[in-house]
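Batch 3, record 17
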Amino acid sequence: MTLAPAFSQALPSLVGVRTDYTHEANRDLLFQLCAALVRAELGNAETWKQAGGSAIRFAQASMASGIGDERDKLLTRNVEYHLLVTDALDRYGEDAQLGSGRLAVLIECGGSGYLKIGPAIEAMEAEAEGLGAAFYWTLTHALYKVMRLYNHDDALMYEEQMHEYAAEDDEENQGQYEFPEVEKALPECIRKTLKRDYREGKAHDRALLRRHRKGQFKDWIGRLRRIEQLARLPLKQSREYLEEGHYDQPPLPCLLVCFKEQDAIVACFDEESQSMLECSSEPALCAIFSAANPAEVRNALRIVARFIQINAELFSLVESIHESEAHRGDPFFDRSESLLRAA
Amino acid sequence: MARLAMTREELAALFMSKAAEPPPAANLILARHLQCKESCDLSSAIAEATQRYAGTDRTLLLAPPELLPPLA
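Prediction for the assembled complex:
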C-alpha cells in the first residue's frame, strides 16, 4: 500500500504538537487533597516520583496504598466497590459543586457480595443450641450499622408487598401471583427468634458467643467480634446530604445473605434486583470534608478506613464459611456474575 | 552527593505551594476548549471518525477532495 504524502497546505503537521493534556479542574483542591494524603502517611516522595508529576495519579496511588494489595484483591473477589473523591455530588441527576473548598469521599456499590450462611448456622447449632442464631443476629445487627444488606428482612417486606398488590388487584388476576413464603424458608432457630425482644436476645446471644469463643468456631466468632467492635465506633457519615432526597433510593445492598442456594431470599432478591440499577442510589459511604481542615480529613479517613476494615473482616469470614462448606462436599454456587450486574 | 528524597513535610509543603499557584496555561487552554461548544463538537466528530476507522468493518472514510490532493 502506498500512502500519499501529506499535502502541507491542507493537512497540518502533528510534529511538535502535544499529544496529551491533563485538565485538573479545581486543581487547588486536588493539591490540597494530595498534601492531606501525605500528612496522613498515605503517600510519599516515591509515590510522587512514580506518579510522574500527575496529582491525580498520586492521589489514586496513595489511596490504593492505604487499602493495601491483599485487601484490594479480597474485596475485588467478593464485591464491586468504587471509591472516588469528588468536588461535586449528584443532585437530581446532575453534578452539583460542593463549594467552600469541600470534597466528598464516596464508596459506591455496583455488585453485591454473597453469603450463604445456612450450613454455618446448622453446624453451630449442632455444637450448641442457639449458637447459630446468636451468630446470625449479631452479625446482622453489626452490619446494619455500616452497610445495607439484603437478607430475610428485605425478603419478608417484599413478600408483604406482593400480598398487598395481590389484594388490590382484580380477582381474575389473583392466580398470576407467586408468593415466596420467606418465613418457611428460614432455619428453625432463626424462625424461633424472629420476634423475640431485641435487648433480651442481644444479651443472650452475647453470653452464648462468649462461652464458645475458644471452641470449634473460634475463628468465625473472632472475626464477628472484630466486625462488632468496628461497627460500634462512633463515626458519623455525612448522611444529611444524602437524606435531602437527591437520590432515588437507598444504597444498593453490599451483601446478599441467604440460607440456601436459590432459597426464597435469593428468589426475592433476583426479582427486586431487576430494577435496582434503573435509578440513582445513594453511595454506600459518604464523608464530606475540607481538604484544608486536618480534623475533617482525619475523620473522613477514619470513616473510610473503618468501612474497608469491616469489609475485609466480613469477606474473609464469607470466604472461610464457603471454604468450610466446600470441605464438607457442599458445592459452592458462584453467584458473582449474576448479582446485580444482570439487572 | 545525591539529594536525599523529600520528607513528608517537604512534599506536603510542595503540594500546598502548587495549590496556591495559578493554573498552568495549557490547563487554562484546555478548560476554555472544554467550555466551547464548537471545540467539543469537533472533538466528538474526530472521536467518532476514529471509532469508524478503527472498527472491524475496514470501511475507509471518504477523503474530502478539498483537503487531499488527487493521487494521479
